[in-house]
Write a structure and sequence with these properties.
By secondary structure, this protein is mostly beta strands. Helices cover 6% and strands 38% of the residues.
């Protein structure tokens, strides 16, 4: 089966009006088997699972209307988009909105501004993205800055054996770092990875392959033996070309690579996809899982075989070797915020994880609406509720987040509304006592550290991230991009709430949806 995707305007249910791209998703259930053996009620749009990608051009505004035909509220989040001056379109349930009620709808205005590259759109109310509510979102440059002949999309995702509601119930009853026997199936461009697909290559052509992991908790490695990859983008940030042998993507991460096709069509080659998870002990046939695809130069040509190499012998992209093309010096830290990943004992229905002194849980009033209506008290984190995990930032201060993890599982940490500088990574906790590798200390180059929006917090390790609080009025969640969000591993950043009060023009539809769901639209979140 061929899956090479030549880029055109392949938007789904779309009409284009100048710089506005209008898309409607009728979101509903669809009974489907995506792994070949378990059939359950997935979530799709316009009757389709998977939901096809959306393509726009840099500077366009995507008007995405979501119509909810489910029996529960939903939201949609554009992963990696800044939403500058429009935090009410960020799509996080009970943070920036109440949600879209069953039978209701909401139009998200996603202004791409100067951003370009690879992103995706997914549900962000509970874990409905794990049921299929997710799709790639590609913003093409107005003027192509890297030469290539063809654009190929490679979407990777994991698919479990039960829907979101059952998963949440299990999470409430399990206080460990992973679910027992959580063996999933890898999907490649929406299809069971065990079904080999073909990417067509022509000799001497240059290909841009956009690779993204839109799954819930599994990571993916991608290699093309016999070919060289050059990374040119990570999480929407254009990078200086970096030669690598393969890619390793945690949930939420994205890369673009340039691959130069060979001069001869004597052989076809493998495109090797491996799904893995550091929280699962290796079990032959279950984890890791291998999904060989095919780079086809000529139909019927023999496959070129290569001896398998260990990962340690290969070059992989790393946040301390990648370098943004547009240089920016490391900012000094005006304020240091320490976030320690903690476990909490189950009880009273509380989640189990946190990034500080409490575990994040849903509030009575969406945090953005509390910030909008509490006047001067909006600077006091207590008004947002005891489990809101709110941190109020001052406008234009340079913030350093120090995130520590003393557990034997890594976490893909995602920051909404911005990219950050990755300035340091090192060991924390007793890795040796657990038989784990000690994370080496690495410090970024001060003249141009890597910037991105999703970074791996290593097991028994820490990371330091820096950014300038230059989004006045933004309400942004920082969270683990796995099921741990549903277990409370998150904090919420509010920047200059008085600016939000002065400038925000909240859509009436957002307030109407709150009323329909029975939530207040003002006051404290306690």
């Amino acid at each position: 089966m061929r899956f090479g995707l030549v880029v055109q305007l392949l938007v789904f249910g779309v009409s284009v009006l100048a710089a506005r791209v209008q898309v409607t998703w009728d979101i509903g259930y669809k009974s489907i088997s995506r792994d070949g053996f378990s059939t359950w009620r997935a979530i799709g749009a316009n009757g389709q699972v998977p939901i096809p990608p959306i393509y726009v051009t840099q500077g366009d505004v995507l008007e995405l209307t979501a119509i909810n035909h489910l029996d529960k509220p939903i939201t949609l989040h554009a992963h990696g988009l800044f939403q500058r001056n429009s935090t009410f379109y960020d799509g996080v349930g009970m943070v920036t909105e109440c949600g879209i009620p069953p039978g209701g709808q909401y139009t998200y205005m996603i202004d791409t501004g100067e951003q370009h590259g690879l992103y995706f759109i997914h549900g962000h109310y509970g874990l409905e993205m794990s049921e299929g509510l997710r799709a790639p979102f590609i913003i093409q440059e107005k003027e192509q800055s890297t030469e290539y002949d063809e654009d190929i999309l490679l979407t990777l995702e994991d698919w479990g054996q039960q829907p979101e509601g059952e998963l949440i119930e299990r999470l409430k009853q399990v206080s460990t770092d992973s679910l027992p026997n959580d063996y999933k199936t890898g999907l490649v461009n929406g299809i069971n990875g065990n079904i080999s697909q073909t990417v067509q290559f022509e000799c001497n052509r240059r290909y841009r392959i956009r690779v993204l992991n839109i799954g819930l908790d599994q990571s993916f490695k991608v290699q093309i033996p016999g070919h060289t990859m050059h990374v040119i983008e990570a999480d929407g940030v254009t990078t200086k070309p970096l030669r690598v042998d393969g890619l390793d993507l945690a949930p939420g991460q994205r890369y673009s690579v340039i691959v130069q096709a060979l001069e001869s069509d004597e052989f076809n080659y493998g495109l090797n996809v491996t799904m893995h998870a550091d929280f699962l002990d290796p079990v032959p046939g279950l984890t890791p899982r291998y999904y060989p695809q095919v780079i086809e130069y000529r139909k019927g040509a023999p496959m070129r075989e290569y001896a398998q190499q260990s990962d340690d012998a290969l070059v992989w992209p790393d946040d301390f070797t990648l370098e943004p093309r547009d240089e920016c010096e490391m900012g000094s830290a005006d304020r240091v915020i320490e976030l320690n990943k903690r476990n909490y004992l189950p009880g009273m229905g509380l989640p189990y994880y946190g990034l500080g002194n409490t575990s994040y849980a849903s509030v009575r009033v969406p945090t953005m609406l509390s910030a909008l209506t509490m006047g001067d008290l909006a600077r006091d984190p207590l008004v947002y509720g005891p489990q809101s995990s709110v941190i109020v930032l001052n406008y234009m201060e340079n913030v350093e987040l120090v995130v520590r993890n003393g557990m034997n599982r890594s976490h893909p940490m995602h920051v909404h509304s911005r990219v950050f500088q990755v300035v340091e990574r090192g060991p924390w906790g007793d890795a040796q006592a657990m038989g784990k590798r000690v994370v080496p200390l690495q410090v970024a180059r001060p003249n141009n550290p890597m910037r991105r929006d999703t970074v791996v917090l290593p097991e028994f390790g820490y990371i330091k991230l820096r950014f300038k609080a230059d989004l006045p009025g933004a309400v942004s969640i920082v969270h683990c991009h796995t099921e741990h969000l549903a277990q409370g591993m998150a904090v919420v950043l509010i920047e200059a709430p008085r600016v939000l009060q002065q400038n925000a023009r909240v859509p009436q539809a957002l307030l109407d949806n709150c009323r329909a769901l029975g939530f207040p639209i003002s006051g404290n979140g306690a």
